[in-house]
Amino acid sequence: MFEQCLYFNTTSLARKLEREWTVAFKPFGLTPSQAFLLRTILAKPGNHQRDLADGMNVTTPTMSRTLDGLSKLGFVERRGSDQDTRGIQVFPTDKALVIHDELNAASGKVTKKLKKLLGTGEFDDVVSRLKAISAAL
Amino acid sequence: MFEQCLYFNTTSLARKLEREWTVAFKPFGLTPSQAFLLRTILAKPGNHQRDLADGMNVTTPTMSRTLDGLSKLGFVERRGSDQDTRGIQVFPTDKALVIHDELNAASGKVTKKLKKLLGTGEFDDVVSRLKAISAAL
DNA sequence: TACATATAGTTGCATAGCTAACAAAAAGGA
DNA sequence: TCCTTTTTGTTAGCTATGCAACTATATGTA
Fold first, then answer.
1. pLDDT-based confidence at A81, cuts 50/70/90?
2. A136 contacts in B (CB within 8 Å)?
């Protein structure tokens, strides 16, 4: 029915990938959204929520709530910004630092598996095209 | 950070497309999920919920609740199957038949816009690849 | 300075999606 | 036939996501 629909095929694939990554991050007690956000925070501590939201392409309410979750789990800490008292900077806790490498390793494992399944060339090519489409929208 | 990640780019694009299609179906009072499901039901009335769930690549609880929504809006009707009394067949109501053409027209309009933006060749190529990846997973 | 506008975050309320647990009916086998 | 297993749907409870509305602070301008 929707074989040629970009929306249908994109969202459908997104659900399949979501299931794949859910399994990968389960040992950490993290959902894919939480895990990817945490990886971003670990890679660059001190980002403002606004920038995190832009970077992950979600709205600020979504970012606010995902951070609530990570905060409750003890993986991140929010501190008021010095430069702009409206803004809030986000930092990883020690608990997050401990799993940093394992988290990246788990991610790398899934990517490797998918690349093997699809072929590295095909994998990279599709990702590039997806990025190009996102940029065009 | 996740420039080369299939999951990240797919889900990110999915969110952007979701926003695009949300606007398109708003005049009908339908969300994209509801609208695509309704189009499926209009195209082939009498499908069982199980088959609809498989076709849309969602779980049965999700299908059940999306149908609850369409049912509450008066667009679909559920009838117990004769062959298998466990099963439930789904039919469009007259209210749905009335908007059938407009719904497809609205969808076609968005697709046309996206094809123009991305180029028809690129569009079709990406969709084919997404389908291939879905099939491989 | 004072007021209007813009920006950062949160909260309320909605849908979409999942897993787990359940009820009911069908299918299969001893 | 009777019992086990499988299948179909629903319900409960969770996260993810969005929009609208709100608070608080910053910025820009008269």
1. confident
2. 117-118
